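Sat 14:20. Reprocessing the chain from the morning session after the first attempt stalled halfway. Input below, unchanged.
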Amino acid sequence: MRLALLSFFLLSTFLCAAQFCDGHKRITPQNYLLKYYRIQNDIFKKVKSDSMSILEAIANCDSPEHMYDEKCLHNHFLFVDFILYFELEERYRRRSDYSEQEFRMALMNLRDLLYKNWMESIKYEMPNGYHEWDAIALKGETLEEFKSRGSEKFSLLETMVKRVNPKPRKRDSARWSVHEYLGATTPFSSIMTDQAMELIKTEKGRQAIEIFSENLESKADFVNLWQLAIASADMDTIAALTILSSVSAQRMYLIRDFKHWMEENLSQEEYELQMRALKQSSAAYFKIETVASAMPMGWNYPDGVGAKSTKSYHFYTTAMLAYQLAKRGFDRETVIKEATRPAKKYKRAIQIPGLAHNIWLRNTWNASTVGDFKQVLVEQKLGAQWGYNLGKESK
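Finished this time. Tokens:
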């Protein structure tokens, strides 16, 4: 089945044309590989022929009319994010005067800026072909009814995932609870939707997200990310964990998956309030990595946790699952086993596509998602242990 998923992934890649902003073709996780080298070569040509710096060439639009185009802004952001995700920055740094760390920080800051620019281009009731079911009338549908539609953008992948990862039986109560709480349909879809949407519905939740975002931007003097989140949420542990585990942990997926439903079923005023919170928190996903890269190792984690990644979502999403299971009375062994199960399965499943990316991109074989396999599993277990303890303390 893994080979079938990989075949689907590569087939999707080779069916797409290699364009950047030209032609208004959107870069996607499926077509990125085929588009990559043409874009890379265009960037290097700009540096050579137009006397641009490498960062200017990466951020430069193909023509002035594309400067504010939503798809173009999306593509610039996603291309830079993929450079960082697949650890390709060295081939670009060689065309600059930056040190390795200086260039990585500059690239992350550029990525963060490009993401915000893209978010600003996403407007109320302005279809762009990016959002789930945005050509369908959804007025009057409950959130549960809308979620039951599944994914329009990744329908084939969703079908395949259901076969690989079927819904557990209710008698496996801990496993069933985790499956229901995650609510994931594909590797590219939002997770923990209910708790995320509940948080942004309240003024208190939105305010916590705004303060959290401001604290990250200001690089306020907090001992670690967890203390920053707790302080932002007025010492509300659940709100802080919700921000870190679900709302800011999944990039732009909540916006892509639920924007059209929100337009159809919320007043414009309420839509604007909730969408602002989603835009702020999704930008925080990237900002956390940027800030953590400039902070002492381990800054992303609570006191006493021996994790070291600048990407903390592995820890906090698993911690939230463990917290919920502990609150429901499951024992420590069951909690840790079931809270880490989905992430372990996902991490194992993406090893083959990750290796295929590394080969195609002429990268070292163990770059990115292949090389961090053991580290991520360790951090997931640490998150489950920490979340279990938090759940027991709060009972």
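Residues 107 and 290 are 9 Å apart (CA to CA).
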